[in-house]
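Write out structure tokens for Rv1355c family protein.
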Amino acid sequence: MHNIEADTSLLNALKAQTKKSKDLYRPQLFRLSKNEDRHKLNQLLLETKQLQVFDTIKEQVFELLKCLKPLITFMPKTELENLVAERLGKSEEYGVWVYYPWSNKLVHLLDEEEFAIVRTNRNKHKITAEEQQVLSSKKIGVIGLSVGQSVSLTLAMERGFGELRIADFDELDLSNINRIRTGAHNIGLKKTVIVAREIAEIDPFLKVVCYDEGITEDNIVNFLTDNGKLDLLIDECDSFDIKINARKIAKNLRIPVLMEGSDRGTIDIERFDLDSQRPILHGMVEHLDMDKFKDLKTFDEKVPYITAVTGFETLSPRMKASAVELMSSISTWPQLASAVTFGGGVSADLSRKILLNSLKISGRFFLDLDELICDAPPLPSVKKADPEKQALTTQDIELFIRENNISESNELAKNLTETELNDLVEAVKRAPSGGNNQPWRLHYQDKKLHLFLDESTALAYLDPQFVSSYTSIGCAIENLLLAAAVKKLKVQWLLTPQLAPKHLAVFQFFDGIEASEEELLLAQQIPLRHTNRKSPQRAEIEDNELTYLKKLVAETDGANLTFVKDLTQLKNLAQIATATDLFRIFIPEAHEDFITKEMRWTIEQANQTQDGIGIHTLDLNNNDQLGIQLLRDRRMIDFLEKINGGGAFARLLTQQFMSSSAIGLISLPGHQVSSWIQGGIAAQKMWLGATALGLQIHPVNVPLLFFYKNSVEKSLTLTENQKLYLTAAEKELNTIFEKPENQTAVFMFRVFRASASPERTIRKSNNKIFSIGRA
């Protein structure tokens, strides 16, 4: 009967024996010309079971002779054999026997001097004998043994150092083998041990010093200086505080630093040995207090430091997509064996040139194979120009006004002063608009204030038939009417949808009214109202507050406001919003609008254009702000779509929706121009009322605009599956809000309690949106 217990006992004994040898990485050398070594080897042979012996000394001597005298290869075979035999003498005493205890192998090799001659023979004359001699005196330190393993092994193969110090605190995981060249039997071994063993198996005479605990504040100076100062530091570690601290000390010691990023073949060279005043990492981190980094707790706190060191703007599209997907569909930064191996070769090459002082340059460089070797890009498509539309003339406007007499008598209308006009324009300017495009244009002439739509500003992928801009125009009208009421101005006004999209409304003003309490209250909120995108802890809103907001909306004929507070419904709405936001990112035209027309990526850019949404106004943490920044790379977006990515955006939107007290939807009958404008009037009145209650509002209209676009545009650049999804999602949203079929959804928003946003979107100066003509 088979004894399972005996098998288990034997297996445990073998595992215990293996564990004892886990830290061994130095081979034992025996020179049999020495009696002591001969005795030790005999003991080894007696005590070691299943020892594998490899003796190819004759072949090695033959290679040695060829290296010393290349022409001997043309000698007769017998003469060559005699030369080898003469050189060998007592063959077992020739050279050195090397025992590798971790693999139980005994190898007969040439001794160091002859071994080095043969090992480096094929380096000539890429590396001269003199250069090889110089390199054999150099000390190199490698921190981090993923890319660092490839660098170390390549340096060893070229014999590019005399001493190598390697540092890594980590042990090998199964997932590491995608890029670290080693066997699965090494899982659980220290990475330093694995590298040192491989180098010993390549060349047992090379000196390798292991720092198994990695680099710390306590040992960094020792790593750089023990047994003589390093001639080169190669940094491949993941710890950003160690990266900076190591450079600070290396700079003081005038040790050059080399780093390879394994993404886009990124190379950093810092020749502190030639320029002791050179800023570390090319000055990219000078604005940060790196001493604080080690005390930071969250990834979000670390983001500004990480981005400064890595240069996120210059990452490859796939690495940017991976950054977006981090902790969503992947748990750590990706690396490929091909990139790591490539980086190891490049780093070893540069290391040699730096140590031989044949390369003196410093800087950040890219050896991006995707850019150096790639297919030619497709030729850009040329859009055919639309036939020129007939311009709207002053006569058209005057004729329309006469046919739709808006005042009892033009003579009774008030001629507004410049101050009154500027106050009204200021109120208009503070209205919200999609992407903060501010599509309104105002012209005052002959006692009439004309409101126009700037089509060039309004043209956007998610402004189908200008419906989003019409909603913004409605918001501007509400502000104008409130500002006029505060000034005790009676307003007679007329929408001009027949002249849309150019001319949209005309206003005349008369003396003699008092503003109502409601108008005064709402008008006071105009400078305070703003979009708030925060995700606070969810708090309930009183029913009477929601009733008040519904009442304000109902003051616009036909307008209806519905709120949803159920958490399951909020989650369903978040899923719809996420899907349509991803459509917006993935569709090239929509993405182009978002990147160039809507977003402003620096405060300077926002101040220059005086429109768009500054990234600093989005109420985002560092991590989410970084994710938004990465969206600028179209190639990254294409790859993100390919892998069905975007989980980070789903997380952000879900967080926003689920932190909302409620989601509201304003709808009106029909979908004419006037419907969207009236919807804007109702939305702005509601928004100002919410501001008065201390509530925050965040419009989430992207789903509604996609629904409308899907229903009216035959050439919508979506797949059939995406179109079907939009149809189903619209039906689901209508069901959630119990929206009547004859109503058009014009404005959806989050409502919640939170502190005000500290940053606000910029507004255009008056001369860009307002003009005064002759009477």
